[in-house]
Write a structure and sequence with these properties.
This protein has 6 helices and 8 strands; from the N terminus they run ββαααβββαβαββα. With about 190 residues, the chain is of the alpha+beta class.
């Protein structure tokens, strides 16, 4: 399903090795890492490892049409059920965006395109997502697309969390996406 997707301002495509320089601006940024819940990459080697993890099906590099610069990623990741088997009906949405591009609606544009693409091909799928409750930008993206909050928990202190953090869990069906508003029909 990892075909190219184009929007009015963005091209979504597979990651390639030459994306490393642009990706470093995202994964080596401590603020982005903290908000997205991953360990910040400390150098080019760690960033390259991150890039290798993004070079798989159902993960797109978010690039600007005007410059072809990679400004982030959006992906649909496999979900494992209680039996530790991949759940064929569920996918988890994940995304991150270069801080220099926050507040321009790019992630909403990318997520909308990916969700529309998924639900057109697989209307029976369920998309899940999670975010730290205090990440208001990420919460706003999920709520914009009619994701429903289905739970939350406090994550204990860990390598990623210097302090306990509240995490919220969301779910979206094709029907809820289509009922979400004008974005779903254009």
């Amino acid at each position: 399903m990892n075909k190219k997707i184009n929007t009015s301002r963005l091209n979504l495509r597979s990651f390639v090795a030459t994306d490393l320089a642009d990706l470093r601006a995202v994964v080596e940024n401590e603020k982005i890492a903290k908000m997205a819940g991953f360990r910040v990459a400390a150098n080019a080697f760690e960033s390259d490892y991150f890039l290798q993890q993004l070079m798989q099906a159902n993960i797109w590099a978010v690039t600007l049409k005007t410059t072809a610069k990679v400004i982030g990623s959006v992906g649909l990741y496999p979900v494992v059920n209680d039996k530790q088997e991949q759940d064929s009906q569920k996918l988890e949405l994940g995304y991150m965006l270069n801080q220099d591009f926050w507040g321009n609606g790019y992630m909403k544009e990318a997520v909308q395109a990916v969700l529309r693409h998924l639900f057109q091909e697989h209307p029976d799928r369920i998309v899940t997502a999670s975010t730290y409750s205090k990440n208001s930008r990420s919460v706003a993206v999920l709520e914009y697309f009619n994701f429903k909050k289905i739970g939350e928990q406090t994550l204990p202190r860990s390598v990623l969390n210097l302090f306990p953090q509240q995490e919220s869990y969301y779910q979206l069906t094709a029907q809820a996406f289509m009922e979400g508003g004008h974005y779903a029909t254009h």
